[in-house]
């Protein structure tokens, strides 16, 4: 556990790329600041020269040798409990007749009691894998199908990899150093992606990396005489194309001849991770689509658009999402889930988009009878985000008036330059060519002026007659400042309406997620805002996907907006408490009513934005000792 926490501290600092206080790191990990200092010392000891983690008055930050320390961690993991566990699993998987417990203990240089404890941990890994661990006297043996054993290897490999991204070094730690190396897999992956592109496929790079991991596992198992055997059923034409490519490339680059069963299985994985053919018209793409799945997707998307008041009902979007869901159904049936390294960032940066994706995933899960994991929800969020980005661009434009006294066509050239350089951020609605314009009558969001204005204001930006890069940057900064100010002003007005003094709790020590939701929910039930059913549905929503949208904030809520009015119950945890795969310090149980649907995006997305800033979180948590103090600090942070 200590080594894992050291790695977590280092990973957090690398991700932040800035100074982070010991107290903040301690809150994230659920330890004391003194422990953080110990972890930093241990991480720095991994590198002989240089500094992996820098220390200073502002706390800690990743140093010049941070990457070297991360690589050193992987190289020195041998002998750690996790490495020993993975080695033990490999021994069991490679030995159809089982292993001798005492011989394995000697080989791993541990006592038989330690190995018994490790076997108990192996049993803990087998839940839901269709594998069982049998123990008879001194022998231990895994029972289950070859496919189930490969899924176990896949799980171990993902545990070794950071954020689900493909890491061949981590994969070789799972499969053993005798497995296929990077020198072979680099060209293999490049050729595979190239040939799939030549067939007209858009390749999901995240998905294809996951497929390469499965190919590595298959190659390793076949090399050990553990192939899948014969193909099952008829091979479809699209499958046959992929089978031919895989057979040729694995023999050429990996030196392994895969059997029919392995090739069919891997071809299916490739096809379920490849987007619809890029060059094909919609009619051709629809030919590949199961009509029943299209009907379900169309229904669920329509409900999501109505529930969240967003523009999703578009034929191109529905077709692409339906093709993705068709692949998702096949992955669910094969239990071959696709990891998404963007899951954490999508959830924290675009909480509203992720929430729409959770709603869609819930509807698909109910109607199609398949489980949908967080990483798969993130892929749906990528589809949703792409669609909403197209429909929201016009709403994000600010209006601008150019003030440029007339001299030949100078004002026309300036307007053309503004449109070309800033057209995606602002819309020019007027041009004043007088040297003494009526400044008070200009009501656009921004005023871009080449002369000194008679009045001052944040919306007025001084620019040159011939637009420079510095001018463009100043206008962009002013536009961003105005948008943020307006968003936070709306948020402040909404938050002051939705908080109540008797829906505030400080101190959540020792409570589970469900218990926290029930405790906060009881406060809103007592106020007549929601009923007990809403609380239970909020717990069900939490089971779909964790509502820990940042490293400090969880926002549990039910999917349906059935509250009598919109209100927020706040719980402050100091120290932090476990939530999902991380820890949080603030829990905001949100009850939304049907009448306040339009406020949902403002409150939800901007509230998460406030708590994504570490300094703001620490200020609110430390000083918000009571409801009044909490609200004062929150409003102060919103006002900047």
Automatic annotation (TrEMBL):
Gene3D superfamilies for the chain: Mannitol-specific EII, Chain A, PRD domain, Winged helix-like DNA-binding domain superfamily/Winged helix DNA-binding domain
Segments forming domain PRD: 288-394
InterPro entries: BglG_antiterminators, PRD, PRD_sf, PTrfase/Anion_transptr, PTS_EIIA_type-2_dom, WH-like_DNA-bd_sf
Keywords assigned by UniProt, alphabetized: Repeat
A single BP term in Gene Ontology: regulation of DNA-templated transcription
Domain PTS EIIA type-2: 497-640
Protein name: PTS transporter subunit EIIA
Source organism per UniProt: Microbacterium ulmi
Organism taxonomic ancestry: Bacteria, Bacillati, Actinomycetota, Actinomycetes, Micrococcales
